[in-house]
Amino acid sequence: MRRERNLARHVTLNGRARNMLANARRRANYAGFECSVTLAWVRARLEAGRCARTGKRFVLEAGKGAGRPHPFAPSLDRIDPAFGYTPDNTQVVCWQYNLAKGTFTDADVVRFARAVIDVAEGRLDPATGIYT
Q1: Taking CA atoms, which of 79, 113, 114, 127 is between 20 and 30 Å from 100?
Q2: pLDDT digits over 26-38, tens only?
């Protein structure tokens, strides 16, 4: 019953915002970073409904598999991982984007995505790295 209540909280906008902020505060505290984004700040971006980097609509439902978020679930991303969760250094993105970014920059993800697309569309030979 408790697990069901916790899962139910993640599919509401307010519940998801609270959970995202609590997790960010915990991570910031552990790493010694500032966390000055507010619940209202997070909620406003969730209400906008789209990833700041891809424009994809957020999905609040759980992903496939135990404990796995949906690829388009909202996630708080520190734009520059060397700094904390401040309004100027935080964006709300899809979980999949944040996972791809890791400790890299937005520009690094764009370069990577272009290479993936170029290979998928046959413009780049993955064995040689030469464009056709």
Answers
A1: 127
A2: 999 999 999 999 9
Residues 6+ apart with CB under 8 A from 92: 20, 42, 45, 46, 51, 52, 58, 74, 75, 76, 77
pTM for the whole structure: 0.86
Q: Tell me the three state secondary structure of residue 94.
A: strand
* HSE (side-chain half, CA atoms, 13 Å) at 59: 12
Reported as a single tens digit per residue, the pLDDT across 54-84 is: 999 999 887 676 677 899 999 999 999 999 9
Cα–Cα nearest to 46, from 109, 94, 115: 94
Strands (E), the chain: 74-78, 90-94, 124-125, 130-131
How far apart CA 104 and CA 53 sit, in angstroms, is: 14
Is there a contact between 97 and 77 (Cβ–Cβ < 8 Å)?
yes
Which three-class secondary structure state does DSSP give residue 75? strand
Walk me through the domains of the chain, giving residue ranges and CATH numbers. Answer: 2-101 (3.30.40.220)
Name the β-bridge partners of 77: 91
Residue type, position 71, single letter: P
